[in-house]
Amino acid sequence: MLIRSRVPLPWLNLTHDKGRLVFRVLGTAFAVLLLFVELGFWDALQEAPVQLIKQLGGPLVIVSQAHYALNIKEPFPRRRLDQARAVAGVKQVFPIYLERPASLWKDTSVPEADRSASQPIRVIAFNPDQPVLNNTEVESYRAALKIPYNILLDRKSKEKIYGKIQAGINRELADHTVHVVGLFTLGTDFANDGNVIMSAETFARLFSEGLPTEYVLDKADIGVVQVAENADVQAIYQSLQQILPEDVRVFTKEEFINREKAYWGKTTPMGFIFFLGMCVGFIVGAVICYQIISTDVAEFLPQFATLKAIGYSDAFVYGVVLREALWLALLGFVPGWGLSWLLYQVLSRTIGLPMEMAPQSILLVFFFTILMCMVSGLLALSKVRTADPAEVFG
After folding, report:
1. Buried b vs exposed e over 140-171: b needs ≥16 C-beta within 10 Å?
2. How is residue 57 annotated by DSSP?
3. Which phi-psi region, left, alpha or beta, contains residue 352 (left: φ > 0; alpha: ψ -120 to 50)?
4. Among candidates 328, 322, 340, which has minimal Cα distance to 281?
5. For residues 296 and 381, what is the distance between their CA atoms, to the nearest angstrom?
6. Other C-beta atoms within 10 Å of 47: how many?
C-alpha cells in the first residue's frame, strides 16, 4: 500500500539533484522509446499487409481455399464470381489480379551499366470501369488506365530500389515498357517494397507469356463482392458459403483482415522476432529503472534507516520507494512518448510502413512503463528491507 505523507519524500529524493534527475528521466525515456519502437514494428508487421484489404470496395471477399496470405499467389476460377453474382442481394462481384515474382521492375532512366538488377514489385490489376478500390486517387486515373501499358505507381515505393517515384516516366516491367501516368498511396510491407496498379488488359499483355488474354484472366486472385443497398450482408455471406464450391472461401472484410494479421503476427519468423523484441525491450527497461531506483535507495539508505529508528513502519518506507518509482515512470514516459512519435514519423516516411501511434498503443506502453518501474521498485525494496539502524549508524 502506497501511504501518503505530508512531506513529499519520494519527489524530493528524485529531484534533489537536478543534474542526476535529467539522466534518470532520460534513462527511463529510453526504456519507453524501446517499448514504443518494438510495439510500432509489431503493429506495422500486421497493419501494413492489410492496407490493400482495407481499400477493397466491398464488404465480402472471395479467395481460393488454398489461399492463406495475401503475398501468396493462389488463384481460383473466375467462374466462381459468376456463381456468386447469382446470389440474391449481391450487386456485383469484381476480380482482382495480383502478381509479384514475375513482375520485375527495371529503372531504365540510368545507363544499363549502372542499372541495378531487376526488382520484384507487386502488381494489382482490375477493370478500371469497376469500383474495385475505395481510393479517390485511383478513381481519378480511371480513363488513363484504360490505355494499354499505362500504370499507377505507389508513391510510398522505395526509391532506393525502384528509382525516382514520379508521374510521367517510362520504366520496364516484365520485359515491357510501361508509362507511369500518376501516383497513388498504398504503402509497403515486409513482403512488398512497392506497388503498381494497372488495368486487367495491361496485366494480361504483360504476363500472358504468349497465351490468349482470356486464358490469363480466367483465374482471379481476389473476388470483391458488393451488396445491394440495405441488403443483409450476413445473410449474403452465409448464402455464398453454402452455394460456392469448396475450392473457394468467403470472408467478410474484417475476417480477412484479422486472418492476414494473424498470419504475419503468429506464424512468420518476423512476428516471433518482434514479439521477442518487445519482451527484451521490457526487460532492458526494467533493468535501467532498477539501476536508477536501487542507486537512489543505496544513497539514501541512512535516511531510510533513520525513518525506521524513529518509529516509521516498513510499509511507510516501502511506500516512499514505490512512489518514487511511480514518479520516475510518469516523468520518463512523457519525453519517451515525444521521442517515439518523432521516430515514428521518420520511419514511416523512410521505409513506407504504417508506423502509427494509436491510442491503444499509447495506453499499453504507459501501462508497461508503470509496471516496469513498479517491478524495479519492488526489487529495490530488498535493500530497504535489510536497512538496520544499528548497523548503519554503528
Report:
1. ebeeebeeebbbbbbbbbbeeebbebeeebeb
2. S
3. left
4. 340
5. 11
6. 22
3-state helix, strand, coil in the chain (%, to 5): 55, 15, 30
How do the pLDDT tens digits run along the chain, 394 residues long?
Answer: 444 455 577 777 667 777 778 888 888 899 899 899 989 998 999 999 999 999 999 999 999 999 989 988 899 999 999 999 999 999 999 999 998 776 789 888 776 655 566 789 999 999 999 999 999 999 999 999 999 999 999 999 988 889 899 999 999 998 899 999 999 999 888 888 999 999 999 999 998 877 777 778 999 999 999 999 888 999 999 999 999 999 999 999 999 999 999 999 888 888 888 888 888 888 888 888 888 888 877 777 777 777 777 777 767 777 888 888 888 889 999 999 999 999 999 988 887 788 888 899 999 999 999 998 888 888 877 767 666 665 555 5
**Residue 221: closest CA among 88, 38, 34, 56:** 56
Taking the C-alpha atoms of residue 76 and residue 221, their distance in angstroms, rounded to an integer, is: 6
Residue type, 26: L
Give the position of cell 481476389: 222
DSSP, residue by residue, 269-327: HHHHHHHHHHHHHHHHHHHHHHHHHHHHHHHTHHHHHHHHHTT--HHHHHHHHHHHHHH
Cell numbers at 68, concatenated: 492463406
Q: For residues 77 and 211, is the Cβ–Cβ distance under 8 A?
A: no
In whole angstroms, give the CA distance from residue 75 to residue 219.
Answer: 6
Whole-angstrom Cα Rg for the chain: 29
**Three-class SS state of 339:** helix
- Residue at 314: amino acid letter: D
Q: What is the grid cell recorded at 170? A: 517510362
How far does Cα 148 stand from its chain's mean position? 35
